[in-house]
Write a structure and sequence with these properties.
Order of helices and strands of chain B: EEEHEEHEHHHEHEHEE
Number of domains of chain A: 2
Oligomer: heterodimer
Strand content of chain A: 5-15%
Largest interface: A-B, 23 and 29 residues
CATH architecture of the largest domain in chain B: 3-Layer(aba) Sandwich
Number of helices of chain B: 7
Mean pLDDT of chain A: 85
Shape of chain A: rod-shaped
CATH superfamily of the largest domain in chain B: P-loop containing nucleotide triphosphate hydrolases
Number of strands of chain A: 4
Order of helices and strands of chain A: HHEHEHHEHEHHHH
Number of helices of chain A: 10
Distance between the termini of chain A: 30 Å
Strand order of the largest sheet of chain B: 6-7-8-3-9-10
Radius of gyration of chain B: 17 Å
Strand content of chain B: 15-25%
Largest sheet of chain A: 4 strands, antiparallel
Low-confidence stretches of chain B: 221-230
Chain lengths: 307, 230
């Protein structure tokens, strides 16, 4: 059998499967919808993780490390330390806030101006505001910065607003695991749905399968249209799931942007990246093929022609 | 072509359908299997078409031992045996053309070749022009002829038929039998199970008589050598 002939027959089987799906549009639509929802759920979760990550990345850029020097450290020494901090490759900017300026700011913004006037000495230390570079804003990088400055003898206290970043990342990690579990479970669900659909189809075409085997149709030949049907179900379901995700992004885009604006951010909701859409569609097709194959292998073997 | 060597067949329900049956059918022969219902005619045909395997003994068809044939070779084996059924087993939801083309489709024959051969087969059974008809739009005799066209479309060297005239009136029966003999004339081995003694006698071919699962008579040589109906 030449490749062209084989291709022709595969095309025939594919078109045949497509035709059969089109002939019962309601049943096909229901099946596709179930598959699409099962695939859309992990995809939506993935969308959430992507956006949470992207959004937290934005916030992390604004994270500062406040290095409080001991009160007996003179200003000249503080300036020296600021230079040293600046020399680190993971530090973007260092701002020295001298004790006097700190007190002045506190007086102005805290509302305790009169009370502070009663103080003889300035109780505030010099403070270095260290802003890490964007790519070094992860919780781990912040933690290493905190340890580094904490080890300086002139430093009294290092305050990193990284607690929430760590918590947030921990939550994201939980979500990511949840995503994997959901994807695995729903993947099995898709397998079951497609397997069952193919099983019903096989049962409905029993006579045809018997006759086909009778005239010498191999198992591969008999199986082929069902495998194509499975792939079409999986592919169709995945594309529909993509449509659902795109709709979610479209519907949520504006409110999310408004919300972000209220927080002074120009964050916009991100859709699934192209390669992940590819993974979604590929996974759909693969699950379809697999579900159909398992079902066909199991149910076609039992159908043998009777005279 | 076909060798039955001390073949016994016992079905799962315990029924002994064939007991120690032996016979040879040579290339290009036309043979009738007769006997009462339940004598084992259908079982013989099922063993030839590899729808069943013998419990004991050996069945050789086209040089292949059906007992030892691997499952994955069954499809290729069946492609070399054309089968005609009493109930013709046509696909009711497919037009005549698709039904006849099926044996070629499973063998991945090029579409152009299929077209040529389906028309040729339909022409041989006198149904050219009915390609688009659905089986149920045809008469019983026509349906049977579609079944025959399907059995011969891939030009198998062996054609077997189980009561092909069972549902037909005498005139149609003779017509169908003549059709079978035309295939024999071009070298096809033909085995027909039939309980219609008159019809069988009229065609004057070799007759294997089965009774209670055993060969009761093999009239290969006892027939008149001149066959009047030829």
């Amino acid at each position: 059998m030449s490749l062209g002939v084989a291709g022709g027959w595969h095309m025939q089987a594919l078109l045949g499967s497509l035709g059969r799906l089109a002939r019962s549009p309601f049943a096909t639509a229901l099946t596709l919808l179930v598959i699409a929802l099962a695939l859309a759920l992990p995809a939506a979760l993935r969308l959430f993780v992507i956006n949470a990550q992207a959004a937290s990345g934005n916030f992390a850029n604004a994270v500062d490390v406040s290095v409080y020097l001991k009160t007996d450290v003179p200003l000249a020494k503080a300036q020296q330390l600021a230079q040293a901090a600046m020399a680190r490759h993971d530090v973007a900017t260092v701002t020295l806030i001298p004790a006097d300026q700190g007190l002045e700011d506190f007086r102005r913004y805290s509302g305790f101006g009169d009370a502070l006037a009663a103080l003889k000495d300035n109780p505030l230390p010099h403070v270095l505001h260290v802003r890490p570079r964007a790519e070094d804003s992860s919780a781990a990088a912040l933690e290493s910065l905190r340890r580094y400055f904490g080890a300086w003898p002139e430093v009294d206290l290092v305050q990193v607003d990284s607690q929430w970043v760590m918590r947030f990342n921990a939550i994201l990690e939980v979500l990511r695991r949840l995503l994997m579990i959901a994807a695995a479970l729903l993947g099995v669900g898709v397998l079951a749905v497609i397997g069952n659909t193919v099983r019903l189809e096989i049962a409905g075409r029993r006579a045809e399968i018997e006759v086909t085997k009778l005239v010498g149709g191999s198992n591969a030949f008999v199986r082929r249209p069902f495998l194509y049907a499975g792939v079409l179900y999986g592919l169709g379901g995945a594309l529909l799931a993509w449509g659902i995700i795109a709709t979610i992004v479209a519907v949520l885009g504006e409110p999310v942007a408004s919300l972000a604006r209220l927080y002074g951010s120009r964050y916009v909701l991100q859709g699934l990246p192209r390669e992940e859409v590819g993974i979604l569609v590929g996974a759909g097709a693969l699950l379809g093929w697999l579900g159909a194959w398992v079902s066909a292998a199991r149910h076609l073997r039992s159908i043998e022609p009777r005279a | 072509m076909i060798v039955f060597d001390r073949v016994s067949k016992r079905y799962a329900n315990g029924r002994e359908a064939l007991v120690n049956v032996s016979f040879n059918i040579h290339n290009g022969e036309m043979v009738f299997l007769t006997g009462r219902s339940g004598a084992g005619k259908s079982t013989v045909l099922k063993l030839i078409a590899l729808l069943e395997r013998p419990t004991r003994g050996a069945v050789l068809v086209n040089g292949r031992n059906t007992q030892t044939l691997k499952s994955r070779h069954i499809a290729a084996f069946r492609r070399r045996v054309g089968v005609v059924f009493q109930d013709h087993k046509l696909l009711a939801d497919r037009p005549v053309y698709d039904n006849v083309a099926l044996p070629l489709a499973v063998a991945a024959t090029p579409l152009k070749e299929i077209d040529k051969r389906v028309r040729a087969a339909l022409d041989q059974v006198g149904l050219l022009g009915r390609e688009r008809a659905l089986p149920l739009e045809l008469s019983v005799g026509e349906q049977q002829r579609v079944g025959i066209a399907r059995a011969v479309v891939s030009k198998p060297p062996l054609l077997i038929a189980d009561e092909p005239t069972g549902n037909l009136d005498p005139d149609l029966s003779i017509e169908v039998m003549r059709l079978f003999r035309r295939f024999q004339d071009v070298g096809v081995t033909v085995v027909i199970a039939s309980h219609d003694h008159h019809l069988v006698r009229e065609f004057g071919q070799r007759v294997i008589v089965l009774e209670n699962g055993q060969v009761h008579g093999d009239a290969a040589d006892s027939l008149p050598s001149v066959v009047a109906t030829r």
